[in-house]
Amino acid sequence: MAVSRRQLLRYGVAGSLAAAVGASAASSARFAAPRRPGGDLFSLGVASGEPTPDGFVLWTKLAPDPLAPDGYGGMPVAPVTVDYEVAEDERFAKIVARGEAVATRALGHSVHPEIAGLAPDRWYHYRFRVGSAISPVGRTRTAPASDSPTARMRFAFASCQSWSSGYYTAYEHLGAEDLDLVVHLGDYIYETSWLLARRGASMPPQLAGEAVDLTGYRLRYAQAKSEAPLQASHAAFPWLVTLDDHEVDNNWAGEHPGLGFDIHRLPPLFRRRKAAAFQAMYEHQPMRRAQLPIGPSLHLHRRYRFGDLAEFTMIDTRQYRSALACGDGTAVTGCAERFAPDRTILGAAQRDWLVDGLATSPARWQVLGNQVAMAQSDYDPGPALLVGTDAWDGYVADRNAVLGAAADRAAGNLVVITGDRHENYVADLRRDYSDPGSAVVATEFTGTSITTGGDGGDLTDTGRVLLAANPDMKFYNRQRGYVRVELDHRWWRSDFRVVPYVTRPGAPITDRASFVVEDGIAGANQA
After folding, report:
1. Strand boundaries in 174-214, DSSP class E
2. What is the pLDDT of residue 486?
3. Where is 366: in which H helix or E strand?
4. What is the pTM of this model?
5. Would you say 480 and 150 are in contact if contact means Cβ atoms under 8 Å apart?
6. Are the C-beta atoms of 312 and 370 separated by less than 8 Å?
């Protein structure tokens, strides 16, 4: 049953900014719950993420009317006290942590409590409560202790989920997997709507056009997170998330807006637009206080360790990059600018942090959570080199620095996982693509989209061109889905899980191809 706005006003009073982002709300006043059960305050579900050996961050957002045109989800102005519980069992008979957080209007009535002090390498269950309204139960886990022997782990990675392009069927299958973690590599939302006919549904008027302010971005997250398969996948596993371009503006680069021109792409207004986009992202994702944006700045590069087996290094290839070389990022030939030594996709500080971490981590597998293709992607099978400049091909100096350092500093088994392309690739990575004899130092697995691009196909004409022009590319597919990964101390296996269609619901899933990387041997082979 619905909770009235008058009843919600009774649930809490203002707390500090720390409480607003999920810290203890012990100082908040407590009010009696309404006599009648609460409505669907938790319409956007629950989530967890950023697992450490002793905890994780939890998330929910109160939104009884998630697509309310003002972007506030049907919530009143007043803050609301939210209780949370963490238990060893799904019946909550063995509760190990509980607390309160204050959901405020300033952060869209979202909460991000950070849980610590738990046992490592354990599954837990969690839930939220506001008065009589109880959230769905989520399941999450702590990571193994950083120095502990860890025999095996499984995770999946996904990206690019345009709501208007199709159904989130892939998440129905991902949510049923046996996983320890999900990694999302960007384009969780799209700032504008594409190809509405693929869903056969009209877009609500408040979602028409392009998101340029906080209300617009909030509504696009609410639309995506209202999808039951996505909610179920968030509730089943902890997630690590980052962004690419469509969380803000297509092909944006650092201080430079993306394609097209309107008033919101003028520098001062673009900074304001980025700040709005970053806040909306934080409000809707299981991210820690360290990721709370400060205006048009959001700290996204960070590391998470899973015992002695794997370290996940999440990088940010948008905020610190130089402007796109030789145009708008489309494929070009003869672009000398992309080789300029001062061009960067990471920024100097992040590049140094990345290189140092690769050299010092004792984990068996170094997993680089990356947004845009790192491998050279030549779109001309002839003698010309035709490459796009929105990916690492436009930032050759940084690519050479990272891959060269990985080779020189014996960084272990480096595997790059990538989104963006709406295609499945497997490509070995060379230290220096200007030298055909340069050593292979890593493998890149690029995952397709959840929906973007519609149904897609298996091997398209573009795929045939790429395979012919790039000898290091070992696989191409353009269907929709995700990549499931299993790794132990001997090998890494990537399974490309695809659905035959997304323009109607109910698609089955199959393993299109599987590739393995052996410990100590750079390069992938088909399983």
Report:
1. 181-184
2. 98
3. strand 365-370
4. 0.93
5. no
6. no
